[in-house]
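Let's do one together. I've listed all components of the complex below, 615 residues spread over two lines.
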Amino acid sequence: MTTTPVPAGARRRAVIATPTRLGRAGWLAVAGVVSLMVVLVGGIVLGSVDLAPSTTVAILAKRFLGLDLGLAWAPTAEAIVIDLRLPRVLTAMVVGTGLAVAGATFQALLRNPLADPYVLGTASGAALGAAIAVLIPVRTLFLQFGLVNTLAFVGAILSVTVVYKLSRKSSLSPLTSLLLTGYAVGSLLSAGLAMAMYLSGTGLRQIFSFLLGGFDGTSWARLAVAAPLIIGGTIAILLRARALNGFLLGEEAAAHLGVDVKRERVILIALASLVTAAGVAVAGLIGFVGLVVPHFVRMLVGPNARLVLPISALFGASLLAAADVVARMLGGVPVGVVTAIIGAPFFLLLLRRARTGYEL
Amino acid sequence: MIAPALFADGVTVEARERAILRDVSFSLDHGERVALIGPNGAGKSTLLRVLAGILRPAAGRVLLDDVPIATFDRSEVAKRLAVVPQQTALPFSMRVEEVVALGRLPHEAALRGARPSDRAAVAAAIDRVGLGHLMGRDARELSLGERQLVLLALAVAQAAPVLLLDEPTVHLDLRHQVEAMELLCDLNERDGTALVAVLHDLGLAAHFFPRLVIIEHGRIIADGPPAEILTDERIRETFGVEPALVRLAAGVNGG
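Okay, and this is what the predicted structure of the assembly comes out as:
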């Protein structure tokens, strides 16, 4: 057949269109790495105890590169940099990476722009687990984590599993059923959480501090437990970008495009939930990072998961570590409060700038 | 004898105790093109989904290149068989060429992503369907008809030897309906793509397809050239319209 006449400019645009977004993705990746570096240095230099940037750099150079820059410092300065601030910044980065990637995964998989890492009940499961841990008078350590962290992890994983299993009993479409089941189970668990908080008495503050999230309890030992789960899960998700792209047109179209829908769906849900649960166990419930970052990235580079996932990882890491610095500067405000205060207006701005409305 | 490209063998599909397809057998040769016609609810789309291997029949089986389709990996099926998906709402803003590029998913390496050959196939598909002027546009801002053409281009980019289409022209204006039909004929005759298209327009079906299959109440009731099977009696009985309405559009003087 003779195709309809192609306007003169069309072909030239055809060549340019894709590289523009790829090029933008490249710049964005560079910006992400630079901001990561800036936040890393800023996160170590800034804090309640004043340390000169030169001292900080000298301590790090001595410790990791074996270089002596000819500066002297107090032993406490070294302890602050190496044992407190460095693991704290790195933990915030790892958790931010996980939340952003898990959010991007759930948004693409559930085809729902409102999805975040907590959409399938992870948050309420973790919260209830943490609250129960506060109520139990036992104090024990498990892999360097307290009972609160451990039960939060278990609660998150359990509630996603329950949501997934229950959703399969419904005759609704799998995605609708997952979302609605997630909502219903989440509400039930929230009722449990409210009850636990009501009964908690003096433990209330501890439950609240978990709900708001933060990095006060971080240490190298905890990072060593959480990081492999989060980074491993994130890499495994990145490797499934092709399947995630298939889901953009819906599950049936994904099957036509060669995606083993049932298998990929359960694997992606499991990985994103694992990453989320590990992040929640370390840092509590930190909102908005997993919702806002993927939207921001998608608006700039389009919905291709091969670009969205890695760039979201970079910016999620920077954003959460930066938010933690701000929280520390403000004298220990919970990080979840900072991310909400930064995230919500930013999200509203994104919504205003989006050219077309979201279809739900 | 060469095995057919796609073969449904005694397929029965049931939903809630009700048979949607009953013992349907259908064979599509390499390089053939067939229109599936029949009234609403006859089971045409269900047959298409069974042929695509995404709906497992209660009885019977489907062979793709002489191998049971259920034994293939989905990605292997997608290299051999493309489906023009029905309209779906896109959850995120997506450019036309990004939607079309999804047709290359089955050919992409898991890690590397799109290669230059994939990008060339996407550009060629866009050109062939005549969508060059829509490049760079948000696919969600397009009209229903334009979106239908985008999905057609996606399936063309997939470049599979078998192509299944479910009412590919339903939202198109008359000129684009004819152009889409001409494109299908071109894919069939020049590239040798075997086609099965569910169509509602008997005129288009009779004019552009040398073989029609009529489905009614979950059974194939006729299978053959339009002039032989699209009799006046059949048009009245199965489709409930006056034959003159169909003849006028099709220019077929059968019956």
